[in-house]
């Protein structure tokens, strides 16, 4: 079935800006500067000012941002970093790539973010940092996590513009993958940093561990934000607040339209920027089938959470070891949402979900066969 309604309509957000993008891209082409240079520097300054941090350093993607942040903080072999398992694989992969051991903590079932009490139980003498993820655009409980006394590295890939994000972590990392709240037209990433020395190492690590391209003091990597992506990001950044507001309005509208009669809605919080609009239901297969039938995209995230992924088997987690994570993995369903989503689209989504719920009621609860809707 061809999906007429996507999960995220990235083009609808940037389409009005295409003339401005073309103009700026022409200027980059004229300049002949594609690596570092004025566009990247200007974006780094503008991003730092927006986030309220002293340093913002462009890198090639959000995964490199995490690895580089960990390495810049001196975290590596023999160290443990506590992170959620209900997140994109890159979170734990980055810890392992830095040579450290990911330690998975369970989540709060309401916020889907790290549960500080469970994190506290997993701290050992080898724990060097905590890596909260601001999942689906909802700020993680930074104050409670910081109170545990360890440095934080915020994986803020999904949360540019969310309240308090990048205000606590030594480093906070962002991805500009095209579906993110602030996005590039390809890959891109950023490390926001509140410590001068760590920031200096981040700058070196993204360019082979060198300050001057002559002397190589660290073993780093090649991970740069392209000038052309920085140019696009500079055009998009002033629109971020509007897009995030559009996402918040869309989330409120789903509740007003009565979606909560069929599924559990995400708890609303003022600082949440709804990178994804994620509902919960033990019957999510029924709802995703009904949406698919109506030509509407939906998605379930992290269906196999990280502690049960094949590459993480060496850590020894068994099924059932993180019960809230596993329940969220089995029940979550993301519905269409983006910064410029229209009421008509949302009405169609809600109609399909409510019709499926009514059909379920007629066939009895727990029956995941979709009865025909008259
Ligand atoms: C939570 C999280 N961390 C890290 C990443 C990695 O970012 P990227 O795809 O830019 O490498 C992503 C996104 O894709 C993400 O959602």
Summed up:
The protein has helices at residues 10-14, 18-31, 38-51, 62-72, 90-97, 116-121, 142-146, 196-205, 227-236, 240-256, 284-293, 323-331, 343-363; strands spanning 55-59, 80-84, 101-105, 127-130, 153-155, 171-175, 189-193, 277-280, 332-335. It is an alpha/beta fold. Pyridoxal-5'-phosphate binds at residues 61-63, 87-88, 90-91, 133, 155, 157-158, 175, 177, 187, 189.
List keywords for this structure.
374 residues; three-stranded parallel sheet; disordered C terminus; 37% helix; alpha/beta; globular
What does this structure look like?
- The protein has 374 residues and is α/β, with parallel strands linked by helices.
- The protein has 13 helices and nine strands.
- The strands form three sheets. It has a four-stranded mixed β-sheet with strand order 1-7-6-5. A three-stranded parallel β-sheet has the order 3-2-4, with helices on one face.
- Helix 11 (284-293) packs across helix 13.
- The chain is globular, with a radius of gyration of 21 Å.
- The protein starts with 9 loop residues before the first helix and ends in an 11-residue tail after the last helix.
- The structure holds pyridoxal-5'-phosphate.
- Pyridoxal-5'-phosphate binds next to helix 4 and helix 5.
